[in-house]
Amino acid sequence: MSSAPVLERAVKLSGNRISAETLGQRLEVDAAQDADLLTIRVVDSTATGAAQLANAVPTAYNKVLGQQSRARSRDMVRQLRNIQSPLKTRLAEIDANLAGRPDNPVLRAQLAAVAAIGGPKQAQVAENRCRTQQSGAAG
Questions:
Q1: What is the CA radius of gyration of the chain?
Q2: Partners of 31 in the β-ladder
Q3: CA 115/CA 121 separation, integer angstroms
Q4: How many beta carbons lie within 10 A of that of residue 83, not counting itself?
């Protein structure tokens, strides 16, 4: 609640009347021991100003938390895509090799291993590919 990003956002939300540093000095946050409850107090020259600043802090916290969460999610998606791309390439290579040798147990095992990294759905797709290629070679 009292991190620099939260304080800066709270100051903006309250109209930039004080600095984030001043808000940090005037802010007091207490957590209840027996409940999920925070008490937020801010000292200001007026009751209205104190209430405005105290109300801005949890709003700012939620906004900063959401922003951080979205940034982490974007980073995770980027990492997953970086993993997925070489796997797709490897799957395509194995598929191409299996087209000429559908009964090759090594290629089938490689396909299953690479597909398993992609999760259960990808593994099922790979199994269906093997069956299709085997039946195509048999027919």
A1: 28
A2: 38
A3: 9
A4: 11
CA atoms 46, 49, 55, 56: torsion sign: negative
Extended beta strands in the chain, E state = 27-31, 38-42
pLDDT tens per residue across span 6-47:
999 999 999 988 999 999 999 999 999 988 899 999 999 999
Chain center to CA of 110: 30
Q: Are strands 27-31 and 38-42 parallel, antiparallel or unpaired?
A: antiparallel
**Calpha distance 92→132 (Å, rounded):** 15
Q: What angle do CA 48, 6, 30 make, to 5 degrees?
A: 70
What pTM was estimated for this model as a whole?
Answer: 0.63
Tokens 């980073």 correspond to what residue? 75
